[in-house]
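Exercise 7b. Backbone tokens:
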């Protein structure tokens, strides 16, 4: 892999983070990371260390972050966004933030986009995610939706920087 050409897509959260890695528009790794416990400086440090390790190991050169249309007012989410910005500056690039509305314009401009529809669209683009999609359909919580949002953010960054 060439130096620093991977895109890291992230769906940010204080409990779960969706992660997608792609290069040249090809998705090659994806997962959901869970961070248990109450919000604390230690938890923030753990999340940022995890992301820093991924950036270094995978030679990431760009980060795309899916955020809600309305940023939560929680202390944890605010600290997490700030910490991610500082981390990216230390790695010599800026994180690009995409709201659900931004993603909707790219993937479903003529449809009502909810988490289920987004998952279906992402799986159609990336059939390798079919297993995660089937697992999500069986679950009662939104565990894998973070994954699909991270893939969408990475895809959006790739499309906007190569067109």
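Sequence design result:
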């Amino acid at each position: 892999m060439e130096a620093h050409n991977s895109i890291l897509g992230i769906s940010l959260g204080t409990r779960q983070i969706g992660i997608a890695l792609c290069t040249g528009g090809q998705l090659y790794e994806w997962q959901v990371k869970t961070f248990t416990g109450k919000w604390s400086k230690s938890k923030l440090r753990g999340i940022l260390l995890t992301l820093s390790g991924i950036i270094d190991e995978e030679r990431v050169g760009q980060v795309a972050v899916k955020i809600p249309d309305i940023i939560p007012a929680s202390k944890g989410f605010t600290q997490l966004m700030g910490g991610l910005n500082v981390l990216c500056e230390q790695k010599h690039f800026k994180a690009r933030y995409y709201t659900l509305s931004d993603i909707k314009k790219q993937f479903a401009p003529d449809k009502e986009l909810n988490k289920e529809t987004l998952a279906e669209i992402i799986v159609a683009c990336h059939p390798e995610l079919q297993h995660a999609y089937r697992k999500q359909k069986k679950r009662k919580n939104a565990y894998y939706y973070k994954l699909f949002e991270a893939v969408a953010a990475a895809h959006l960054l790739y499309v906007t920087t190569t067109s």
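Instructor comment: The first strand starts at residue 6 and ends at 11. The helical segments are 41-57, 75-90, 100-107, 115-125, 130-138, 145-162.
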